[in-house]
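Input record (one chain):
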Amino acid sequence: MKSIANLFILFLLMTSCSTKEKQTSTLNYRILHVVEGDSLFITREYDLVKDNHEEVEVYQYVNLEDKKWNMTFKYNKSTKVLSFVDSDFELKEKDKFFDPSLSSVKFDLYTLSQPVIDGHGPLLFNSDYGILNLDNGLWKSSIYLKENDTTNKVQQILTMVRE
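The corresponding structure, as predicted from the sequence alone:
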């Protein structure tokens, strides 16, 4: 009886070890620039926590002042779908934007899988940097940069996305 119990425990240990998922996390600093129309509306400081799982990458933007402004995006590696709240975004155009001061990887353009009136507009993303731009569809855009915008980068990004 004791050997059966030992075999059962060994079996449980082996299955739990083999199903554990590898996960890595990274932490980066971001400043969110919110633009309404063509004018800078507000800036907010965030920590970007990137959790890299086998199937999904999770990008958690943690507001440094108020957690009600936290945002979470999930990128499914196999389907290439990016999810935010209840919205799914699909790849529309690869390599749409490149700026070596932001990332060595080009940004891809994503749009809503199921477009809705006044829904989110286009989104720029790469798995190295995370979200660069998110448009809320009401002429308000959010740009995540590594620092304050001293080189008019926000306007360059907005002009390209709105073309």
